Queue: 2 jobs
Job 1
Amino acid sequence: MDRIKITGGERLTGTIPISGAKNAALPLMIASLLTSDRLTLKNVPNLADVNMLARILRNHGVDHSVDGKRADPNGYLGETFHFTARDIVDTTAPYEMVSRMRASFWVLGPLLARAHQARVSLPGGCAIGTRPVDLHLEGLRALGAEIDIDAGYVVAKAPGGLRGARVVFPKVSVGATHNVLMAATLARGETVIENAAREPEVADVAECLVKMGAKIEGIGTSTLRIQGRDRLEGATHTVLPDRIEAGTFAFAVAATGGDVLLEGARMALLETAFGVLRQTGAIVEETADGVRIKRNGNAIEPVRVETQPFPGFPTDLQAQLMALMTRANGTSVIRETIFENRFMHVQELARLGADIRLHGDSATVRGVGTLRGAPVMATDLRASVSLVIAGLMADGETMINRVYHLDRGFERLEEKLSRCGARIERLTAG
Ligand code: UD1
């Protein structure tokens, strides 16, 4: 199993290109199930989760191809993927595949909408709480699906097709919004989704669906109004930049000090987190090419933050913020309101000397003068990268084990950081 070795203490200086967003690329790929025409996606990040989902889609009968390397001055521009779901030949998404990545569960809505039946394993993914799927199932039931759970599988059918309905989510769910939105584009009549997730990745998917011929009003708001169509067409869409990757590198620069341009990052996708970074003492500026982060010598100021659905502070940056706060000039309080059990990084950060106390859904982080490198273990995607940030700040060597979690969501992490001066390398298992 690969490991990552970091020798801390270097400042980060230079340019980091931001990849296409994983959390948009995955549902966009799934949207290809809604049409027999070709869907072309540009700027797709090369990640383990993307490759796994492509395998799952091929199993449903989707043809998939990737354009070869193009002469492009920006060697980081993501890949171009083509998907054609001419016929859905298999409506089962098997346990072996879905258990490895939660987002693959979102094939349920599109399969039901297009093929009127689906058998999808209950999902896996990062172990950050119980992560139920009740909102997905209730939403699809409202559209007329008959759903049973049988031997770990969701078995669903919609004889005669789905029909539009009013879906009011009692809680904001990104995945349930994707699932019901995609299903509604091919349902008969109008669907109104209330309390829909407003995450930019949901809007990106909705915009792609509109290019495919879907009729959607309210994109970017918490009420989505969809007029179902008989069929959708092919389209070409560019995946929006990954705001979580951008935020992660921004926290890394605030942690080590330095001056980095996050090329392609967009301030509007991450206002709250950049605001928090400013409170910590970093300088954040939007430029024509992206967002520039600087911290030069001044102390890291403590903050009080709670995670919230968009436009609030994202849960996917909570662990990275906590890593930064381990060295703050005082005590911070970080409250996690989205997922229970999303504090697995705490015990690993403690191995580097962090002083963190947990009480319920909150963590109190007392800043310490120094962290010291140590062997640590990656536990989930975002927790792993918080250990990278801590390792970059720590004195001496930090060895991160189980880095496959990082490969699920961060493209060329070591390369992007080492180009900015970090001493970080991957040790490949022989
Ligand atoms: C997505 C993101 C993930 C991010 C999360 C919250 C992708 C691929 N993943 O995950 O990176 O951390 O949004 O921004 O885009 N819930 C229920 N019942 C359900 C569904 C969800 O109770 O049927 C709960 C969850 O347990 C959680 C909350 O709702 O407490 C939010 O989860 P949700 O927004 O659905 O997260 P994901 O879509 O899985």
Note: Residues 3-15+242-427 form a domain with the UDP-n-acetylglucosamine1-carboxyvinyl-transferase; Chain fold (CATH 3.65.10.10).
Job 2
Amino acid sequence: MSTLRFRVVEKAFQTKPREVKSPAQRPSEYFAKYVFNREKMFRYLPTQVYEKLVDAMDHGAPLSRDVADGVAEGMKRWAMELGATHYTHWFQPLTEGTAEKHDAFVEHDGKGGMMEEFSGKLLVQQEPDASSFPNGGIRNTFEARGYSAWDPSSPVFVVDDTLCIPTVFIAYTGESLDYKAPLLKALRAVDKAAVEVCRYFNPEVKKVMAYLGWEQEYFLVDEGLYAARPDLLLTGRTLMGHEASKNQQLEDHYFGAIPTRVAAFMKDLEIQALELGIPVKTRHNEVAPNQFELAPIYEECNLAVDHNMLVMSLMRKVARTHGFRVLLHEKPFKGVNGSGKHCNWSLGTDTGIGLMSPGKTPEENLRFITFVVNTLMAVCRHNGLLKASIMSATNAHRLGANEAPPAIISSFLGTQLSRAFDHLENSSADDLGILEGKHGMKLDIPQIPELLIDNTDRNRTSPFAFTGNRFEFRAVGSEANCASAMTALNAAVAEQLDLFKKEVDDLIAAGEPKMAALIRVIRKYVRESKPIRFDGNGYSDEWKAEAARRGLDCETSCPVIFDRYLAPESIRMFETTGVMTQKELEARNEVKWETYTKKIQIEARVLGDLVMNHIVPVAIEYQTRLIDNVYKLQSIFPKEKADALSAENQAIICQIAERTTYIKEHVDAMIEARKVANKIADERAKAIAYHDNIAPMLEQIRYHIDKLELIVDDQMWTLPKYRELLFVR
Ligand code: ADP
Ligand code: MG
């Protein structure tokens, strides 16, 4: 008898929402309470130090040792006033999540006592003994050292008793070992390239920022139910479980009233996020039962990425104090929607211009079209790479399934913008004319000025949709570090803007007026980027065929998709923009393949254990009970009648025998397949073997387990079912 399952279900139902005490103040008063932001820098640092630091933050000016010491001193004072006793370099290795190693502020004072010490040297650079982070071979030589180095563009913050310092993580030889270093390089590249292009329109622009507004989707599951599911505990997703009779078909969860216990969790989470300077704004129920979303106001991309990493760890922590576990896995449950992390992306200038926002004048709109069309070109040329940037063993479950973005990257522009593009493409140079107007010219692009009055024009199936003043990259996974996608996207756009600038300048040098040159190149790009534009249903089979005809990347195998990072055009793009070298790309791919293999390996092991310890024993026990019943019927009824009465049970006995046999045989076969795959030395080939031979077996075995779940006595079933995991809250 499965008492555990009933006990945890009962307890889950009884769990009362936890009281969340609102801080006495309003959010505006406690916002960034634990962040060493400019206001605190100004208060805690000597004026000269403050000015030097701001220069470093805004313009990347180098910091001298003296200044760093001054900053460290002020930071320490501020952090200690908040009760901090430790500090840590907080970095983002090539795993999920962040890494930190805490050190206390204490030092010997030389007189037999202790004092609190924190120097500029400790702030700026450290050498964590981090040899067990994935590095793809870059650090397996004798030079195994890795350094963490302070990123002054993201402010330090205090969590519990620790001062956290955002850092990059790099090898002694200079290669990036993390997500942040390449992202910073990509942001610098897109800044430089975009400023150059901006200057055709606005010569005063000095800096262009990339912005990111992420939307984090997640599931909440009661902690007792979670603990009773070894698959959730060890892999983050359910490896078996039949769909509940009701799931999301009534569409009654999306935007529905937020359950009380969940609301308490959200409130607590939001307060803590705001205190850490994360501008969280939106919360709602998502499509699947027990699925929710949290979104902040968009921020500068590097900061937004840090904030997303911080929010994910905060969610895990806060969920536990409310008796929940948060599931960030992209596909925790079969048959209901998975979770993504839409990444809303745009570019904007230091003068306050949103480069993805249409303007009021034709010139502003030409600038807008310039940036949109260059983005489309970048996405078109690197669509395979962008897919690789969001691909993982976990996100693979989501892409291409009938709910989330399809496994082909395309872009939806909306009817108005599409019409404007078509007009541009089909009009002659004269129509677009260089006639009268404010600056001596008028751009006859009729649809553009009214653009985006209507931005309700949406296509939910598009993986890269234009949504009024930004692009929304919807294929990013809920568990992912968005830096991966943002690095690829910003680098690709940077490369594209450089190419654009060169083409326009060449025309100008050949005597063409600036506006005519811009329009000529834009028109060419509108035509060349056409393959990426798609406004139809991204899930249809016709689109798959059409996309292949258009030459878009249609690969669906996760380990093979990683190859896109090593395609010559990707290497060229990353190298010319200074974001990553071929060596770094190769090392990272080793990590990706290895991670893929390990994830499937763990799932296969867990499923094997579930089968042997839970599924088969319970099914056999139930079967034995039925056999007993059949025998007993025989003993009290005449044979013919007994046969008739036990026919149903005999069929179930038979079905259990067949399914358990299938399951056991396939678990054995899966072990054999693993043995074969494990012998493969090459990481790519091994990952492909796991993808092709082992991952499908997980599904085949699951099919029979789920069928057993339907016929075995509910009281005997040990593992919490979907109806419990998804509907208890
Ligand atoms: P939805 O797409 O679900 O309608 P919202 O309208 O709430 O979502 O916006 C999603 C995210 O897009 C938010 O984080 C928001 O701040 C962000 N966003 C809005 N404008 C921009 C922009 N110009 N650049 C980047 N992100 C933006
Ligand atoms: Mg959105």
Note: The pocket of magnesium ion (ligand 2) is lined by residues 215, 342, 472 (CB under 6 Å).
